[in-house]
Design brief:
Helix content is about 75%, strand content about 0%. The protein is mainly α. Helix 2 runs antiparallel to helix 3. The protein is elongated, with a radius of gyration of 19 Å.
Length: about 140
């Protein structure tokens, strides 16, 4: 199960890296496509990453990782929830004409910083998974 934990944490890290690519695609799409520009970013953040995180938590538990590492493996799920809240707040902080406000830009910036924090957490999870000892098969003595 250790290998599955290592692989799933690596796939989770790749999904987070792709999030930055998908955010850039949305930001640089011309003409701006509204929510459609960020579709891949949204799907990855609301479905793919949470599912991969749950799978990684399961593999951490099955690999008999220490409780602290299992807890750390769950942190990206909380950060994804925070991401959604920050995105919603940033979107809501527009003025009467629909223009972005300074407060909205600050909260949007926190959305990006939170994403960076999530990547660092996943890197720590992957390092922890790699450090786990391989479980040697139990040999049965013959009588």
């Amino acid at each position: 199960m250790r290998k599955a934990f290592v692989v799933s944490s690596g796939v989770l890290l790749a999904a987070f890296a792709l999030q930055f690519v998908f955010a850039a695609v949305g930001a640089f799409t011309k003409p701006a496509g509204g929510d459609h520009s960020y579709r891949l970013h949204s799907i990855t953040g609301t479905a793919v990453i949470p599912l991969l995180t749950l799978l990684t938590i399961l593999f951490a538990a099955l690999a008999k990782a220490p409780g602290k590492l299992i807890g750390l493996t769950a942190v990206p799920l909380a950060l994804v929830v925070l991401q959604a809240l920050l995105a919603g707040i940033a979107t809501g902080l527009t003025d009467a004409s629909g223009q972005t406000t300074t407060a909205g830009l600050i909260v949007g910036g926190l959305h990006a910083v939170n994403g960076i924090v999530a990547v660092h957490v996943v890197v720590a999870v992957m390092r922890g998974a790699r450090k786990l000892p391989d479980r040697a098969p139990v040999l049965v003595e013959q009588a």
